[in-house]
Design brief:
Blueprint (H helix, E strand, L loop, with lengths): L3 E2 L2 E2 L6 E2 L1 H4 L5 H15 L19 E4 L10 E2 L1 E7 L7 E7 L17 H13 L6 E7 L7 E11 L5 H6 L10 E8 L7 H13 L4 E3 L6 E4 L5 E5 L2 E6 L2 H12 L4 E4 L4 E2 L2 E14 L5 E13 L4 E8 L2 E3 L4 H6 L1 H11 L1
Parallel strand pairs: 1-6, 5-9
Antiparallel strand pairs: 2-3, 4-10, 6-7, 8-14, 8-15, 9-10, 11-12, 12-13, 13-14, 16-17, 17-18, 18-19, 19-20
Length: about 350
């Protein structure tokens, strides 16, 4: 069985380095600590020999077991370590343990609904359409969305003991569990790499938001609405693009999510699904009406930059007319989809 360790680029030399070389290099202590932190996070926490501020809270995602404790007939997969350097984070050197999910069985449908780019742009257009009524846009992001979601059926993985820091081996007393150079783990909650991680996370968020009145719109994957509030949002994995009309309505969604998740809030709504959005909700301009008379208008607009199509598209609302940023050919091509979307929103 092959175990994978993704390389990280050395910021000084520019060379690719594996975890093996990182654990022996100039910053070995940082990488070793990061690796230990990852095991502590995924397991029951740790850091007994550290200062209290450096201890790590666990999530009970994995449990270390002996090889004999793996149920008969269950497959055991390989581990995969992803290394990265993030200068702006508190923990600059980060190692993430993921699962070789391609070797494991999951017999249910593992796909989870997510919004597409076309539907996202239509939702953005609807914000400008309703801006004169008070509509505004914000973005939310759930941290570790795929993680910490309980699983009905546990999975199993083995980890080379050479990648388990001595601090972890000693704190969890893992020496007796080593078999043929590996330590086995039982996976009880969602982890990156599992086929089922996405659908488990999606089902959980549906369950958690339903008591607060939020539910997916039928036949429109990735679009959600509230049963009584005018709030709607699109969901792309762990990213929310939220259209709301009152500040308290936005807080209602935020507080509902915070009961279960740690979220990041962007009130500007300027970044979503790879798009960069520049909003202007209420510029007053002087223009002429259809009779040629001078008149003040509220002029709402948004510029959207899509890196896949390197140009700005725009949309604006003036004098009760919404001007879409879709090229006419795109509109013709997607009339059926757009009509279906609008019908589902009503």
């Amino acid at each position: 069985m092959q175990h994978f360790v993704n390389a990280v680029t050395n910021p000084i030399s520019g060379n690719k380095e594996s975890l093996d070389s990182l654990l022996k290099g100039d910053n070995a202590s940082q990488w070793t600590t990061s690796l230990a932190n990852e095991f502590f996070r995924l397991s029951r926490g740790g850091g007994k020999t550290r200062a209290p501020t450096d201890s790590i809270t666990g999530t009970d995602t994995i449990f270390f077991i002996s090889k004999q404790q793996v149920p008969a007939g269950k497959k055991v997969t390989y581990s995969n370590f992803l290394c990265d350097i993030k200068p702006l984070k508190k923990e600059t050197h980060r190692v993430r343990l993921t699962v070789g999910g391609d070797r494991l069985d999951y017999f249910d449908d593992a796909s989870s609904p997510a919004v597409g780019l076309l539907e996202t742009k239509i939702h953005l257009n609807s914000v400008i359409s309703d801006a004169h009524k008070g509509a505004r846009y914000m973005c939310l992001d759930i941290a570790n969305f795929y993680l910490n979601n309980p699983m009905d059926h546990f999975q199993y993985m083995k980890i080379p003991v050479k990648y388990i820091p001595q601090e972890v081996m000693d704190e969890y007393d893992l020496h007796s569990l080593v078999c043929d150079g590996y330590v086995h783990v039982e996976i009880r909650k969602g982890m990156y790499g599992l086929k089922e991680a996405g659908i488990i996370a999606y089902r959980r968020i549906v369950k958690k938001l339903q008591p607060h009145g939020y539910q997916p719109v039928t036949h429109t994957p990735g679009l959600w609405h509230h049963t009584s509030l005018p709030t709607t949002f699109t969901l792309a994995v762990d990213d929310f693009g939220v259209k709301y009309f009152r500040h308290n309505d936005a807080l209602h969604l935020i507080q509902a999510l915070q009961q279960t998740y740690h979220i990041t809030i962007d009130w500007t709504g300027s970044k979503y699904c790879g798009l960069t959005i520049n909003w202007n909700y209420a510029d007053s301009i002087k223009d002429k009406d259809s009779q040629g008379n001078s008149k003040n208008y509220n002029y709402y607009w948004a510029h959207i930059y899509d890196p896949l199509i390197p140009s700005f598209s725009s949309m604006y609302y003036k004098d009760n007319v919404l001007f879409l940023g879709f090229p006419y050919s795109t509109w013709l091509e997607n009339q059926r989809c757009i009509s279906f979307w609008l019908e589902s929103c009503i």
